[in-house]
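Q: What changes when iron/sulfur cluster is included in the input?
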Amino acid sequence: MYIEKVNTFLAQKYPEEPPKACVRSFGCQQNSNDGEKIKGLLSVMGYSFTDDTDNADIVIFNTCAVRENAELKIFGIVGEMKHLKKRKPDVLIGICGCMVQQEHIVEKIRRTYKQVDFVFGTFAMHKLPEILYKALTERTFIVDTAEYGITENICEKIVRDCTYKAGVQIMYGCNNFCTYCIVPYVRGRERSRKSDEIIAEIKGLVADGVKEIMLLGQNVNSYGRGLDEDIDFSRLLRKINGIDGDFRIRFMSSHPKDAGRELIDAILECEKVCKHLHLPVQSGSDRVLSAMNRGYTSAQYREIVDYARSKKTDFSFSTDIIVGFPNETREEFEETLELLEYVKFDSVFSFIYSKRNGTKAALIEDGVDYPEKAERMNILLKKQREIAVERYSSFIGREMLVLIDGPSATEGKVTGKSDEFIIVEVDGDSSLAGEYVKVRIIGAHNWALIGNIIN
Ligand code: 5AD
Ligand code: SF4
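A: The predicted holo structure follows.
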């Protein structure tokens, strides 16, 4: 009902051409996917799109709360919007996503960021038409951060940022309560989408020519719990693998405590699933892992890696690491370095611990100062660069299938990603974007492999 109301209102207010919306998403792939869904809704309500806030009639910031840096950056950008609002008083400014699911943030916006017209949380995306209608007609500050429990897509239309790669949400929320993490507080408890809905969405995408499907969830291994179907993540993978078409399947993220042999077997059996696992380990120290409430030990993590590599010697792993968890000792940090050395990840996403109010770890008195944490971070980055160079060299001579993304930093070259999720650089121009090419690896940078196209 509100979709039509907004539509009619906008047609009257902007009779010449459709109003423009600018949607900016920060943070993880799930957030980008939410941004695409928000754009879908905006599009059916009558908006066209722009990347430039200055040209927009509505600007929506889809925010991330995982680290303080992300929040500070967003506050900076929203602060700047004061000038846009002054110049164009009719422009609507909205903030949604993880950050505003925290009460203190909404209060701060209400008090200090008067240019903001509306705020809606991670559970309330489907309420956007109603929120927007009120914002357009009443012009008061609107907040909706209620915890609605829907798992269906909020709109049939999704305006995708890329034509050949697409994220598909399979579950929402997280039940793990790692002590450092804000996500369970801002995205709620785990809810899985029905497998039929997921399959239908993927079939549609493949029919539209999408070549890579990324299954999304905070903890995809818990997929299916609480659903009225006899299904789990491995079975879902097999079902998706059975869909006809020329596409590959990735997923993100897995939790080591739920990633067992069955998952590795499913990955190996399904020819469309990339032989790569992003498996955030966070730390190599059992004391720290326990303080993080991760539910596995360093040895159990290594067992999963060993099993995968016993079946396929070059099975590819990437991970997330938190450096400087409260009171992490130098020795405990060194255990993380040892783990990196053992596993030889293709890529490591590392973060300095950021205190998140409301989490358990925020209550720990931390005896480690920031310069020490920053130094550990540098040591870890250097170590991982060395490991990557060594691992990348082992790929020289090999054939790989690469889905090309676009121009490289090097002139006359393009980059794409291999099944292993490694960046590969080859000769070519942007006409190759969205194409699979078969490549022979002939060398390596420390950030990418170098290949020759052979088909
Ligand atoms: N501080 C630093 N990094 C964090 N992550 C999650 N919470 C925090 C935090 N409070 C990292 C973890 C996670 C990734 C998405 O972000 O490594 O896997
Ligand atoms: Fe994604 Fe977590 Fe950031 Fe939310 S807080 S956008 S779920 S990384």
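Observations recorded in class: The chain has a mean pLDDT of 96.
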